[in-house]
Amino acid sequence: MWCRCHNSAGVTRDPQQDNPGGNEVRRFGRSRGTTFALCGVLLMAAIGAEASRWGRETASAPPTPPAVRTLGQEQVVLTPRSASRIEMPRGVPAAHASALAALPGDDLLAFWWAGERESGADVKVYVARWDDGRWSAPRPVVDRDTLGDALGFAVRRIGNPSAWVAPDGRVHLYVVATGLGGWAASRIVHLVSADEGRSFGVQRVLPMSPLFNTSALVRTSPVGAADGGWLLPAYFELGNKYPMLVSFDEDGDPRWITRIGSLTTALQPALVAVSGREMRALMRDHGDDRRLQQAVSRDGGEHWEDLPASGLANHDSSVAALRLRDGGFVMLHNEQVDTAASPRQWLRLSVSGDAASWAPGVDVLKGLPGDEFSYPSVQQVGRELHVTYTFQRQAIAHHVYDISYARTER
Amino acid sequence: MNLPHLLWQNVYGRLGWAVVLAAVVLAVMALRQPPSRRTVLATLGTFAVLMSLPGPWSPAHWIGLAFQRPSALGIALCVLSIEARWSGRTDRPTMPAALAGAIAFAGGLLYLDASGWIARGVYPSGFGPVGAPVAGLLIGVAAAAALVMGRGTAHALALLAAVLAFALCRLPTGNLWDALIDPFLWVWAVVVLARRVPRPRRRRRHLPVTSAGPATVL
Predict the structure, then answer these.
(1) Is the model more confident about A66 or about B27?
(2) What is the pLDDT confidence band of residue A55, given thresholds at 50, 70 and 90?
(3) Average pLDDT of A164-184?
């Protein structure tokens, strides 16, 4: 490195004083030629590393998404089949934020967090499996201590899970984990299970923000892409609130991140693929509109434009949406009773043929002021629609509906 | 998007925080008296040992709770600062004004975008498959040219090291911005610039000369 130079009298001198500006290189104890060679080697190594990545990432044209059946004069009909609650862990009074993921076959996984209270030190993410028409006993997946040990830094609290089952059968779980602060100081931890949710390994914290990676959360379910990858909806909520999404390839590696539209009062986007490469985001409204916020993408989710707010009321409540395999869309949302009522006391399933105009389907649950039926999740298994939601912040409820189609008179 | 392995990130974070904290402590010490070489070595060694402790025993475990990991450029500039203490050089600014200006401007844009005030996708561009690597390599070439020409050698070396950390290992996060800027570095740059703003000279206050004559008595 730098050398201190001494004159014959042994007095330390600064070489720059002798040759200001020109000989700073010699402080390294190397000639300009050596520096040139060393820089050249380092730059060639950098170029080589980048070139090898480009070689591996040779972009291919995005595959054409499968055709989407349009409903025409048909309408989705939902018939209630069953309603129950998932067994909660013993001695745990609070539960919230369920997320469903469909396993190969007819099984489901439900994830949620539970503990003494929201943000409590004992909060864990739990999983239960829907197998042969029954839920298994809940098993803890992760808590803040195990997460901190795996990540190499402390985690203050854990929260919302979101899950996806990749085409290779691996289960990808995304969990909100906060740094120093409240939920606005959250980060998203990516965990992976190779044994259908029996055990999980921490993959990484998703890099979502340059602000010490602060304020990135998940809530709603990922949506599959045509090439085997998937899109994970996420959001920022430190001051402004805006929706984002992360694209993953079929191996579960992140591809790109984008912001959904330019709104600063919308969060928790629920994504649905509408047709071809068109997607819609339906979002919780934190602004004065108190209407379901919307955005549209026509390039598979890479770029988005804001749409006018929907006619559906949204008083800062999370929604869930799904495109059905045989066409049509369903959305779970809290309907507003009147201004004096609780904003989350009425949970409704609405149906649509185009994800733009919605009609009431069935009321999942309509309670009294003070009740809370919120944070829904929805998945399709065969011709059944499975719905989970937070029941009074104490448990996770599970409803099953039969899906059918009926011709409508126009 | 290529992201570094979690293990590499943890090693980087622990080494990085050891360097940053040692630089900060030495800078504080230098306010009273320039630290000796022994002090510099002891400070750096102490933080290196502390950071390598397992789990919650390591300060990095708790610093990471709030601040994750420092930028590669931030660490490199802290290395320069420590080297300056070691060699007793006080004539070289740790962050020259040109570098501070670039960091302050880019960081301002980055943080306005990240906090939602503008929507230009600045941070996601740091993951770009072509743009980010090309930008990183161009910065590296510029830094190497400065090194060869002997201009701003130390800072060019710091910049080159940061770009190499990104190009070779994708540290610290896989995003070019995180290699070049972090909020602490941005604040540091803004302070450097603020201190260069010329202050208006204080004028000596000239008190009006009062008449020594006798007051008029009405």
Answers:
(1) B27
(2) confident
(3) 95
Beta pairing, strands A108-115 & A124-131: antiparallel
Amino acid type, B130 = V
**Residue A33 at interface with chain B, using a CB cutoff of 8 Å:** no
Residue A67 pLDDT: 60
Decide if B74 contacts B182 (C-beta within 8 A). yes
Instruction: Calculate mean pLDDT across residues A262-277.
Output: 94
pLDDT over 80 at B212, yes or no:
no
Q: How long, in residues, is chain A?
A: 410
Whether the Cβ atoms of residue B41 and residue B27 lie closer than 8 Å to each other: no
Angle formed by the axes of helices B183-196 and B97-114, to 10°?
130
B216 within some domain = no
Chain A segment 217-256 residues within 8 A of B by beta carbon are 236, 238-242, 253-256
Establish if B41 belongs to a structural domain.
yes
Please, are residues B163 and A46 in contact by the beta-carbon 8 Å criterion?
Answer: yes
pLDDT greater at residue A387 or residue A30: A387
Nearest chain B Cα distance for residue A377, angstroms: 27
The predicted pLDDT at position A284 comes to: 97
> Is there a domain that residue B204 lies in?
no
Domain of residue B147, residue span: 6-196
Would you say residue B31 lies in a domain?
yes
The number of domains in chain B is 1
**How far is residue A210 from each of residues A8, A131, A147, A288, measured CA to CA in Å?**
52, 42, 22, 29
Instruction: Tell me the pTM.
Output: 0.90
Residue with tokens 């590393």, as numbered in its chain: A49
Chain A, 176 to 205: residues with Cβ < 8 Å from chain B are 179-181, 185, 202-205
